[in-house]
Amino acid sequence: MKNKNDRKASPWKSIKVGAASFLVMVIFAYGFQITKVNLEELSSEQRQESLIRVVRALAKPDFLRTNKKKRSLMPRFMYLALQMAIFLLRQRKLHPALIL
User: Any idea where the domains of the chain sit in the sequence?
Assistant: First the structure.
């Protein structure tokens, strides 16, 4: 009785995997060449300082301090709700009253 693990790999499957690997390497090399990556530029002092700032910012994010202004929709919603209540009271010709 033969197990599934005892079977030899199909030559076509090996060829497909090899061709796909070769194609991925060619695409990667072509993309590297097209984007004109200059690895020597990374060693410049200005790039190093920029990289250090980015790494520090990623390592210690400050969630408490933001530069964006936060606007709440609640005051606008409350204003519209009050206007709607006043409108409904006027339509029914009711006056607000406190019933004990």
Answer: 10-62+71-92
Question: Radius of gyration over alpha carbons of the chain, in Å?
Answer: 34
The answer to whether the CB of 41 falls within 8 A of the CB of 47 is: yes
**Helix/strand/coil for 81:** helix
> What are the tens digits of pLDDT across the range 16-63?
999 999 999 999 989 888 887 777 777 788 888 888 888 888 887 766
Both tokens assigned to 78: 């409350």
* 78 to 19, 81, 85, 88: CA distances (angstroms): 65, 5, 10, 15
Instruction: Please report, as a single letter, which amino acid is at residue 90.
Output: R
Residue 52 in tokens = 């250090």
The structure tokens 């200005």 sit at: 46
